């Protein structure tokens, strides 16, 4: 489908095909698509290029679904903790790239998504949000302050405190 850096695709990948695959409900199809879309090497083969917002909406929806459903990972599909870790990694990349312009977009959307997943989740999902994403995100300088509004929320204050405590206990 996409080739690899060692074996690139023989032709461009039509953006229409990518959009069709984004609507495929198969966990493995979505997993491979997410993995490829998050790798900039593949972007040059998609024509016309996909708008960043389209990729962001797909990625956010896919990761959210994985965290909520708690599926076992397959070859490409993410487990809940794999997805939470990718959320933390994506957040950290956006945070370090350009905090000021990203605050209103990806990082704010991730913060909102994690809040919604935590609020509606069962105990295992809540644990995944804290252990798989927040604890690692809070290790990045300035991130706990970005989430400070959670401290005043009767539901979100607990995950905030747990993640902050864990990140303080880790070596620098």
Let me know the average pLDDT: 89
Structure class: mainly alpha
Largest sheet, in brief, is:
2 strands, parallel
User: Gap between N and C termini, in Å?
Assistant: 41 Å
Succession of helices and strands: EHHHEHHHHHHH
Radius of gyration: 17 Å
Low-pLDDT residue spans = none
H/I helix tally: 10
Strand content: under 5%
Strand order of the largest sheet: 1-2
What is the 3D form? globular
Helix content: 55-70%
What is the number of beta strands? 2
SSE topology sketch:
Blueprint: E1 13-14, H1 15-22, H2 27-37, H3 40-43, E2 46-47, H4 52-69, H5 80-97, H6 99-102, H7 106-120, H8 123-137, H9 143-146, H10 157-169
Parallel strand pairs: 1-2
Helix pairs in contact: 2-4, 4-5, 4-7, 5-8, 8-10
List keywords for this structure.
single chain, about 170 residues, mainly alpha, two-stranded parallel ribbon, 10 helices, about 65% helix
Please provide a brief summary of the model:
The protein has ten helices and two strands. The protein has 172 residues and is mainly alpha-helical.
Give a structural overview.
- This protein is mainly α and 172 residues long.
- The chain is 64% helix and 2% strand.
- The chain is built from 10 helices and 2 strands.
- The protein has helices spanning 15-22, 27-37, 40-43, 52-69, 80-97, 99-102, 106-120, 123-137, 143-146, 157-169; strands at 13-14, 46-47.
- It has a two-stranded parallel ribbon.
- α5 (80-97) packs parallel to α8.
- The longest helix has 18 residues, at 52-69.
- The chain starts with 12 loop residues before the first strand and ends with a helix.
- The mean pLDDT is 89.
